[in-house]
User: Which sequence fits this backbone?
């Protein structure tokens, strides 16, 4: 049988990780050589002549490639639009588990499996928004985290493309809760708000992972607001989200904002106080950082002024300015609000 030569439409690069395979490597390379155009092989610490076999084999056949000598135990998985933040340079010293979940963060934070031991039994699952199935929960790794810029070159058209893939997948597996959740997410990000709300509600009805159910219900509330639903519908939706997971303060902050925008200062202050008293939870899914670092105290500083709770409002403003966890774009406004309290003391 004559092998099909490489073509411009289907060039192959052989990619391997090897160690001490001198007895086997040539058989493998002979089988692959007729159809590859290049090769990149990583030797992780061979003490036999594996590397020599590889280099001589490809030199005789004039197939270009690269051999790298990198003994490694773990793979760090990152996208091009991410930046690694190293808080503890010695984080590698205690690594032993098959995999680790690493915090990813922009405006929201969540944990994702990003460190994988090379011998781990793991595989990606899903038609899009794939997840790494490692057969169990990955322990969280402290000492590093990833800034997720979400600015990758494949973003153009991504949301509509993902929605189509997920809609097709759900016709084959209509009970797949993860597919339903990310269909809702994709429709929302594509601007298909009413369809997104319908998918979120279907995800809520499926039950399962409590954090995902809560987030779906929270999005139902946010979409009700964006779609211009009646005020009582929006308010009930936020309260429903809070009631099923009171460890999450995001609905409280949104209710504080909602009532502030309608000059209902006492209610705004009530919800802002409750949010400020809620500690950042140990959840892994889509934690809004501002909710647990500065937003409740900002809402308190505003609403307290209008109900005459000047000491409370001043303390909230002072906390904001002392900690400075808000974005730089908010500084002038927060300082201006504080000036009202300073003036009230004179």
Assistant:
């Amino acid at each position: 049988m004559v092998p099909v030569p490489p073509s411009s439409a289907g060039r192959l690069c052989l990619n391997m990780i090897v160690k001490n395979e001198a007895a086997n490597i040539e058989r493998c390379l002979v089988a692959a050589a007729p159809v590859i155009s290049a090769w990149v092989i990583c030797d992780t610490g061979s003490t036999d002549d594996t590397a020599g076999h590889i280099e001589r084999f490809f030199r005789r056949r004039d197939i270009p490639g690269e051999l790298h000598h990198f003994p490694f135990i773990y793979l760090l998985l990152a996208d091009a639009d991410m930046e690694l933040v190293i808080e503890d340079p010695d984080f590698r010293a205690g690594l032993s588990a098959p995999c680790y979940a690493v915090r990813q963060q922009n405006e929201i934070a969540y944990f994702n499996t990003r460190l994988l031991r090379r011998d781990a039994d793991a595989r990606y699952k899903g038609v899009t928004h794939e997840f790494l199935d490692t057969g169990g929960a990955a322990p969280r790794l402290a000492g590093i985290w990833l800034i997720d810029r979400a600015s990758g070159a494949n973003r153009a058209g991504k949301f509509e493309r993902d929605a189509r893939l997920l809609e097709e997948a759900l016709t084959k597996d209509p009970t797949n809760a993860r597919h339903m959740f990310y269909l809702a997410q994709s429709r929302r990000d594509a601007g298909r708000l009413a369809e997104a709300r319908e998918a979120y509600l279907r995800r809520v009805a499926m039950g399962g992972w409590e954090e995902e159910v809560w987030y779906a219900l929270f999005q139902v509330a946010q979409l009700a607001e964006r779609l211009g639903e009646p005020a009582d519908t929006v308010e009930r939706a936020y309260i429903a989200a809070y009631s099923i997971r009171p460890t999450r303060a995001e609905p409280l902050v949104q209710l504080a904002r909602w009532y502030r925008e309608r000059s209902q200062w006492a209610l705004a202050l009530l919800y802002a106080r409750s949010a400020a008293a809620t500690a950042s939870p140990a959840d892994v899914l889509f934690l809004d950082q501002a909710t647990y670092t500065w937003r409740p105290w900002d809402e308190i500083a505003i609403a307290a002024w209008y109900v005459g709770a000047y000491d409370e409002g001043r303390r909230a403003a002072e906390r904001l300015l002392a900690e400075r966890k808000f974005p730089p774009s908010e500084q002038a406004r927060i300082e201006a609000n504080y000036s009202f309290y300073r003036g009230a003391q004179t």
